[in-house]
Amino acid sequence: MRSQAAARAAAARRIENDHPRANPGVDSGRPALAPAVRSVLRPLVRILLRNKVDVWTLVEWVKQIYVDIASTEFPVADRKPTVSRVSLLTGLTRKEVSRLWEADESAGVDSARYSRAAQVVTGWIRTRGYQDAAGDPVELPFEGARRSFSELVRRFGTDVTPRALLDELLEAGAVTRRGDRIRLSARGYVPRTDDAEKLGILGEDVADLISSVDHNIVSPPEQAFFQRKVAYDNLVSACLPELRTRAARRGQTLLEALDEFMAANDRDTNPKLAGEGRHRAVLGIYYYEEPFAGAASEEDANA
After folding, report:
1. What is the pLDDT of residue 101?
2. Which of 45, 71, 112, 170 is the most buried (most CB within 10 A)?
3. In which domain, by residue range, is 39 found?
4. What was the pLDDT predicted at 57?
5. What SS3 class is residue 66?
């Protein structure tokens, strides 16, 4: 009968076969990559643990993405991707690559509901006919062939029903209702209680931000995308409420100005628009605050 030590050694060999060690030269070639990736992963792992996702589930997701990107975005010229090629790029065994290649990736969180609600709110704000003389969104009746909430949803909400979308916007605090009249009370849509929608935003917005950073890493300066932030680490607590308010107000103003320009150049909004190509463009604004965990300031030390 094998000893426990022998059994553990055999298990370790099986793990090594399924999960070969990373190339030891990777870290030495990219000394700044490891701490940068760890910084990105920390808030993500916090979300995963809060949602009861263990490390092996994450590993499986990561392996699937490695195989997908290696096979679709890192091809050899004029050759179809092969199991051996993907195995070489990813460090996975050929057996693992074959299994993952055939597996169906989880569809994940569907963010379509978020997108439809946001499109309806945006259409309400920017579309002539839904604005008063001052350019502000008008109060709408629920039903009606022209200038009603139902007509707005049919125009911008695609396949969602007006009743379902109204419930969604009411829950999010984006609209208020008085009898049959519906008033827009927020100039944007952010889900408040639906965790699935919030996680959908995580998948969209964080992916766009990291893709923008990746573009700037590999592109020459003259082709870089706009990527800026302002940060201070010794702010007094009393200024934070006003800072949040200023960030939200000015950020919303900028987004609405760019939304107007983008809508004027988008074929979905203007089907008769002339021009070639089809492109997706995104500008995101975020705000974050937390107690500073670094060394205490002189004032704090002397307090």
Report:
1. 83
2. 71
3. 35-106
4. 87
5. helix
Domain assignment of residue 21, yes or no: no
This prediction has a pTM of 0.57
Half-sphere exposure at residue 293, Cβ-oriented, CA atoms within 13 angstroms: 2
> Which residue type, as a one-letter code, is found at position 268?
D
Co-location of 267 and 202 in the same domain: yes
pLDDT digits (tens, 9 = 90+) for 178-225: 888 899 887 666 665 556 666 766 777 888 888 999 899 889 999 999
Which CATH number is 173's domain given? 1.10.10
Using the 8-state DSSP alphabet, how is residue 221 labeled? G
Q: Do you know the residue count of the chain? A: 303
Cα 198–chain centre separation: 9
Question: Does any domain span residue 119?
Answer: yes
Strands 175-178 and 181-184: antiparallel
Show the 3-state SS of 169-185. HHHHCCEEEECCEEEEC
CA–CA distances in Å: residue 209 to residues 37, 201, 203, 212 = 14, 12, 10, 5
Residue where one domain finishes, among candidates 106, 134, 153: 106
Structure tokens at 170: 């009411």
- Residue among 122, 107, 269, 283 at smallest CA distance from 188: 122
Scanning the structure block, which residue is given the tokens 């808030």? 43
In whole angstroms, what separates CA 62 from the centre of its chain?
17
pLDDT of residue 114: 57
Q: What is the tally of structural domains in the chain?
A: 3
Q: Strands 140-141, 175-178: parallel, antiparallel or unpaired by DSSP?
A: unpaired
Which of residues 53, 85, 106 is at a domain's end? 106
Same domain as 180, residue 116 = yes
Q: Which residues are CB-neighbours of 111 under 8 A, at least 6 positions away?
A: 197, 200, 201, 203, 204
Residue 227 has pLDDT above 80, yes or no: yes
Of the CA atoms within 13 Å of residue 62, those in its CB half-sphere come to: 13
CB distance 286 to 227 below 8 Å = no
Residues 62 and 87 in one domain: yes
